[in-house]
Amino acid sequence: MDGISSSLGIHLIADFFDSSALYDPVPAEKALRRAASAAKAHVLRVNTHDFGQRAGFTGVALLAESHISVHTWPEHGYAAIDIFMCGDAEPQLSLDVLKSYFRPQRVNVQSIRRGLIGHATHRFAAAGF
């Protein structure tokens, strides 16, 4: 390697506060598909589950490049978003689509480079590490 580290994928973890569209998984399924398409990712399957009685939903788009998931708490105006993609996919573009769909008033995003290649790894003496 040339000394420049690369990663195998990018993992975005987002908190959407004071959001809308937190009840119905049917249109959310379409939003998950649009989010994958925007990132140039390939959808293998989308699955959602409605918790009923306006208690929110969970959904996941299984991608060739990994996944996009959402879990909602309408009573708190909150959606937890998880996007992990490898290869040439652009997870930030998925996040932009989901921001447009859920329209949060406040967003907190963590970006994690996964599978760092070219970085020294630390070995721990303790079992399990």
Please state roughly what percent of the residues sit in beta strands, choosing from under 5%, 5-15%, 15-25%, 25-35%, 35-45% or over 45%.
35-45%
The average pLDDT value, as a whole number, equals 91
Main sheet: which strands, in order across?
Answer: 2-3-4-5-1-6
Tertiary shape: globular
How many DSSP helices? Answer: 2
Strand elements, count: 6
N to C succession of SSEs:
EHEEEEHE
Query: Runs with pLDDT <50, length 5+?
Result: none
Radius of gyration: 17 Å
Helix content: 10-25%
Class by SSE composition: alpha+beta
Query: Can you summarize the main beta sheet?
Result: 6 strands, antiparallel
- The CA-CA distance between the termini, in Å, is 26 Å
Please give a structural write-up.
This protein has 129 residues and is α+β, with helices and mostly antiparallel strands. 20% of the residues lie in helices and 39% in strands. It contains two helices and six strands. A six-stranded antiparallel β-sheet has the order 2-3-4-5-1-6, with helices on one face. Strand 4 and strand 5 (78-86) form a beta hairpin. Helix 1 runs antiparallel to helix 2.
